[in-house]
Amino acid sequence: MGGRAKPRGNLPAEFSSFVGRRLQIQQIKTHLAASRLVTLTGPGGVGKTRLALRTAADLERGVADGVWFVELGGLTDARLVPKAVMTSVGLRDESGLWPLSRLIDHISAKRLLLVLDNCEHLQDACAVLTDSLLREAPELRVLATSRQPLGVTGEQVVHIDPLTVPAGGAPFVLARTAQAEAVALLVARANEAGADLVLTDANVGDAVELVRRLDGIPLAIELAAVRLRTLSPGQLVERLNDRFHLLTGGSKAAPARHQTLEATISWSHDLLDPEERTVLRRLAVFPASFTLGAAERVCGGEPVAPDVLGALGALVDRSFVNVERAGGDARYRLHETTREFALIRLREAGEEAVVRRTQLSFFAEMCRGADSDGRDADDETTLANLEALEVEADNIRAALRYCLADPGSVQTGLEMAAGLGRFWTSRALSEGVQWIEALLERDGGETSARARALFVRSYLAAAQGDPTAGLQASADAAQLTRGADDVLRVRILATRAALHVLDGDISEARRWSDEASTLANILDDDIAHAAAAQAEALIASLDGDFVRMRDVGLAAAERCRRAHEIYMLSTHLTSAGVGSMMLGDHSAAESSLVGALHATLAIDDRPGLVMRLQALAANAAMARHAEHSARLLGAADMLRTEGGYDVSPFIRPLVEQAATRAATRLGRERYERERNVGAHLDRDAAIRLALGTDLAHNPEPAPAGPNPLSKRERQVAELAAAGLSNKEIATRLFVSERTVETHMYNILNKLGLNSRTKIADWVLPTG
């Protein structure tokens, strides 16, 4: 018997010890058993998030379809709440469905637990989403954290109190006092910070007084605990008492909890040196986690240019900033309460506008760099860029919001939105449409920036199957680029041709395709030729000229390889494969389609994966391999349904013909049986089926030689060799679990391994 399967989900790893809360954890579990929505409420810093995560982790193995954590603290646009949940559960916004519909389709028959964290600033949107999901998904349960209830029917509210503090009176029994939650947290965090705190009869009274003065609030205790490296508990109490007296006007009563937390943060803040305070307040513009490079750029500007690296390290040491390790990299994050405090200080310093413009500049460069046409990026870099954009999504959204609010930044916003075209297409389709349309509604921006944004809008419409919106955008883009002889215009014209095909107007499609090809010939540029060839191959298929379709596809594929244009490569190899298939050369067809599948996997194009499987199924049916075709059709339909995609109109006739041929050859009963076999494969097995490979029969690892893995693949291999699951690797590297699956497939394929357990044998001697 094998070991238990690892639970599904995306719960983040815990980076510090969890202290106390046993009774509350049990209470939350009890409520979740009786109610499908439980909301943990309480003030900032009281530990709602950590408690929710620990409870969810305890329940993880008992939830068949996984526990999924949704961090909403960095989100400010209520319209993007469904998109945030989609992303967290591993779905992409790459189908024509709106995110809420897509979510409902995905979870309606699943048994899972959603953890919605930091709902308070998006309360109405979270309430509407939760209500809709609970109505449509009978096995769904939701655990939310918020400073106030969501107000949804059937909600069970659990108010989270601070940690327990020892009762008054002396003397204190040392062993019993050390078990009090607030005291235990103080000792744990002090020792984790290097304070070497040991409770004794001499200091236990001061320790108790300290956690009392901090009202048992976990965040306040953690901020204070790091000071125990240089102060005794008694000295720390004395200094905190001075600050509380100042903030409360000398009131003899204990301060309210929000005053306690503010006083603790303020006191800890005032102990920072000027550079550390400068960096802290400037970090407030990051709504989500950030890199050292981003911090150095955003926080290092005038009028004061601090040592950001040194200050950031000090802020981590003092618990103002949390560090999240990702393999050899690190990302940083402010607690939401700390960020609110820092933002007030930023505004008081009069620096907010300058710092936000610097932040905009940093992320604008990242977005512009993503739109390279592939000329300067190899395939690994292309995928790495997409992964980086996924991780920075909340920061990029903040920059785009600034562009919408600032009339002087519309140009930058248009450039960013256009630069993100490939990201929108494969990761955030409907969201991309919203941003581009909002920016195009603003006055301003140079003609070239508006034209590029309109072009991106047009091909997003093509991906959504919306020719009406796409044709309007492409017409506007064509008008703005009239007379221009550049690659952008070729791409606009070719996309317009494809949209006319979707709209059923073949005459207009032919007109714009011809114009795109003519301009590409004038430019004699690989990317221009490849763009024009997309429409040319499509028109050839409609004309029944499969020799031309094949030849155009093969020639364009070679241009794509030269230019490192992997996005169009899969399309052109598919054209070549379908052309060969229709000409009866099924071996050549399979070769081209398998190449298209490899290109699709390299960029983790999930709708493209479905299309390549369908094309291979059609080729198998024509080649009289009916059983293989039926299984491929089942596998493709499973992935298509899971992803929420429609069958592409460009391949639908081939899919229908393949099903008919396979059913006729096998008989309806056997066809359904074989198709069902394919439908029950997982993604990796479906890919192996499509490639005609069986990892169980792959050769042993290749002899030692040059390392065949890319830098990212080596990172994944090393973590897999250390025993981490795909989910754990995804958490470490800040990528999606599906991206890790793609890397794992490539690693096994490149190394000739038949099991991930053998990766360790390769990693150890290779180093």
TrEMBL record:
Under the heading Pfam families, the entry gives: GerE, HTH_77
**Where's the HTH luxR-type domain?**
702-767
Alphabetical list of SUPFAM superfamilies matching this protein: C-terminal effector domain of the bipartite response regulators (SSF46894), P-loop containing nucleoside triphosphate hydrolases (SSF52540)
Q: What is this protein called?
A: LuxR family transcriptional regulator
Q: Which PANTHER family match?
A: HTH-TYPE TRANSCRIPTIONAL REGULATOR RV0890C-RELATED (PTHR47691:SF3), REGULATOR-RELATED (PTHR47691)
Upper lineage is: Bacteria, Bacillati, Actinomycetota, Actinomycetes, Micrococcales
InterPro entries, A to Z:
HTH_77, P-loop_NTPase, Sig_transdc_resp-reg_C-effctor, Tscrpt_reg_LuxR_C, WH-like_DNA-bd_sf
| Origin superkingdom | Bacteria
